[in-house]
TrEMBL record:
PANTHER family: MEMBRANE PROTEIN (PTHR40077:SF1), MEMBRANE PROTEIN-RELATED (PTHR40077). It is a multi-pass membrane protein. Its main location: membrane. The keyword rRNA processing does not apply. Keywords: Cell membrane, Membrane, Transmembrane, Transmembrane helix. Residues 5-89 form the DUF3817 domain. The keyword Cell membrane applies. This is DUF3817 domain-containing protein. It is found in: Cell membrane.
Length: 157
């Protein structure tokens, strides 16, 4: 799976769980007064939010994002449904093209600028490599975190 595809899936998941959370809030504060919807949707959204941030970080390292691109990506996760437009803009700008990098020598020059300036988080390329070789471990951590968040939320009700 390419960086573009992984970021697309994470941004869609984050946007869908935003919608679920909004529906849950309508159910909680609307005529039904059902607070469990927010607990479940909130837990799912929390897991999707953390996943999106991690995927954005790893993708950014791989694609040699600058600080502004990291900042915009992080901010897009705070506002409902903003991750999808961010993802589309990054794709349109050509910042998501290519495959996963496997060696630091592949970080010679930025594709869009032709300069040899280093990306700010380039030194974390081993994190990208580790993520690529351990997808089930990452998935297990995310599922465990989601289960713990959900258990904690349900315990309060």
């Amino acid at each position: 799976m390419t960086p573009k595809r992984v970021l697309r899936l994470a941004s869609l998941a984050e946007a869908i769980t935003w919608a679920l959370l909004i529906i849950g809030m309508v159910l909680k504060y609307g005529p039904t007064q059902w607070p469990l919807g927010v607990s479940i949707a909130g837990s799912l959204h929390g897991a999707a939010f953390l996943t999106y941030l991690y995927v954005g970080l790893v993708t950014g390292i791989n694609q040699r994002f600058g600080w502004v691109e990291y900042l915009l990506g992080g901010l897009s996760s705070v506002f409902p449904f903003a991750t999808v437009p961010y993802d589309l803009v990054m794709e349109r700008r050509g910042r998501l093209e290519g495959d996963w990098r496997i060696a630091s020598v592949e970080f010679g020059a930025r594709h869009d600028e032709g300069s040899t300036a280093h990306a700010p988080l380039e030194r974390f390329l081993p994190l990208v490599r580790w993520s690529n070789y351990h997808p089930f471990t990452i998935t297990s951590f995310v599922m465990l975190a989601a289960a713990l968040i959900l258990a904690g939320a349900l315990d309060q009700h």
